[in-house]
Amino acid sequence: MEQTKYLIVGSSHAALEAVSAIRMHDPEGSLTVVTRDAHLPYSPTVLPYVVSGKSAPERIFLRDDDFFARNKVSYRPKAALAALHADSNTAELADGSHLAYEKLLLATGASPAIPPIPGIDTVSYHVLRTLDDALKLRDAIAKSKQAVVLGAGLVGMHAAENLVKAGASVTIVEMSDQLTAGYFDKVAAQMIEQAFIDNGAKIMTGNRVVRLEPSPVGAKLTLENGTTLEADLLLVATGVKPEMAYLNGSGVEHGQGILVDDRMQTSVANVWAAGDCAQARGFFTDTQVMNAILPDATVQGRVAGMAMAGDPGIKEYPGGVPLNTYHFFGRHAISVGSSKVPEGGEVVTRFDEKTGRYLKAIFQDGRLTGIFGVNEFFDGGVMCQLILRRIDLTDVKERLLANPLAVGREIMSKTWR
C-alpha cells in the first residue's frame, strides 16, 4: 500500500493554504493531494465569470504543475475519496486503491444541495459548482430564450444576470420573502431586486416550486400558488452542502459539516478538516457553524496545515465572520459580520436615494459587529479585522461612517500586528 506523511483531500483554497503552511515548516515530508475534480486547482468564486465569458477557463487556475513539482507534492485529479478508515489511517479512493497517511486533511468542499421537488429527476437542469458545470451553463445560456433560476443566493443571482445580458427572459424563484436573504437586509435586497427588474428580470419571492415535469420547451414548473412557468434552461441554485458519505463508520463526528476545534482537529486523531466542509466555531457564538466563504477557507487551511506540521507559530482559528461581496449590473454590495443586533447594540444607517448608496453599521459597546453597503466603498478585509480584533471605535465612529474606506485603513495601519 502506498504511504504518505501528509494526505490532503481537496484542491481549492483550504487545501492549497494547508500545502503552503506544511511546506513552510516541513519542506521534505511526503505530501499527496487527491481531488475528485479533473482539473488543476481553481476557486468556485470565479465560476460565474467563466459563465459570463469574462474569465477564460484556461486562465483561472490557482496553481500549475510546476508549483506542485517545486513543492514536492503529488497532485492527483479524478481521485475522489470513497471511504475513510481512520482506525488504520488509510483512505480508500473511488477506484478502489488505498493510501496510508500519518496526517490527513479533509478539504472536500461542498456540492449543490438539490431540493426534493417531485419530478426533479424527470427534467434536465443545471447547477454551478465546478468548472465543468460552468462550461455547460455557459454554452446553454447562449441558446436560452426562457430561463428560470431557482434560488436567489449569490450563485443564482450571478447566473440570472448573465442570462439577462444574453437576452433571455429570466424568472427568479425564491422561497424567502427577499433576494439574497443570507447576505443582505431588506433595504439592500430591494435595491438589488430593482436593478434586476429594471433590466427585465421577473422576481418571484415567497414562492416555492411544488412540481417539475418535462414540457416541449424543456421543463414545466408548478408553484405553490398554482402559477406555472416554462423554461428551456433551469438552474438549481438552492445552496450547497458538504458531501460526507465517506465518513460513514470512520468515527469522525459531523453535523451540518465536519466538526472541528480551533486547530481544525476533528474528533479523530490525525484527521483535520477545513473549508466549506468544516463546521467550526463562529466568532459571535461558541457554537460551531458553517461559514462557507473564501477568506475563511484560507484561514482554516493555514491553521490546519500548521497544526499538521507541528509549527510552533500556529495561531488558533479566531472564529468565523461572514464576508461576502457581490457585483451586479455595474453596482456592488458587500456584507461583513453579523446582521443580528446584539442586546444594547446600536444601528446606524445612511441611504442616499439619488446615488443609490446605502450603508448600515452595527455596534456594541463602540465595537463593530457588522457593516453592510450597496455602492459604498470599504475594504471588507479591513472591516473583518476591526470585528475580529474587537477594536474600540468610539472616538472615530463618526469619521468611519463618513468615509469607511479611508478611515478603516487608517485604523488598521495603526493597529495591525
Features:
alpha/beta; FAD/NAD(P)-binding domain; seven-stranded mixed β-sheet; five-stranded antiparallel β-sheet; 10 helices; 24 strands; 29% strand; globular
Which residue ranges are poorly predicted, with pLDDT under 50 across at least 5 consecutive positions? none
Mean pLDDT: 95
Structure summary, number of beta strands: 24
**Second rung of CATH, namely the architecture of the largest domain:** 3-Layer(bba) Sandwich
Helix content: 10-25%
Strand content: 25-35%
Count of the domains: 3
Determine the number of helices (DSSP H or I, runs of at least 4 residues).
10
CATH class of the largest domain, named Alpha Beta
How large is the radius of gyration?
22 Å
Q: Structural class from helices and strands?
A: alpha/beta
| CATH-defined fold name of the largest domain | FAD/NAD(P)-binding domain
Task: Profile the largest sheet.
Answer: 7 strands, mixed
Q: Span from first to last CA?
A: 46 Å
- CATH superfamily descriptor of the largest domain: FAD/NAD(P)-binding domain
Task: Describe what this molecule looks like in 3D.
With 417 residues, the chain is of the alpha/beta class. The chain folds into three domains: 2-110 and 242-309, FAD/NAD(P)-binding domain (3-Layer(bba) Sandwich); 120-238, FAD/NAD(P)-binding domain (3-Layer(bba) Sandwich), CATH 3.50.50; 330-415, Enolase-like, domain 1. The protein is built from ten helices and 24 strands. The protein has helices at 13-25, 47-52, 65-70, 131-141, 154-165, 186-198, 294-309, 380-388, 397-402, 404-415; strands spanning 2-9, 31-34, 73-76, 81-85, 90-93, 98-106, 111-112, 146-150, 169-174, 202-205, 209-214, 219-223, 228-231, 233-236, 240-241, 258-259, 271-273, 278-281, 288-289, 323-328, 331-337, 346-352, 357-364, 367-374. The strands form six sheets. Strands 1, 2, 3, 4, 5, 6 and 17 form a seven-stranded mixed β-sheet that branches. Strand 11 and strand 12 (219-223) form a beta hairpin. Helix 1 (13-25) runs parallel beside helix 7 (294-309) and helix 8 packs across helix 10 (404-415). The radius of gyration is 22 Å and the shape is globular. The N and C termini lie far apart (46 Å).
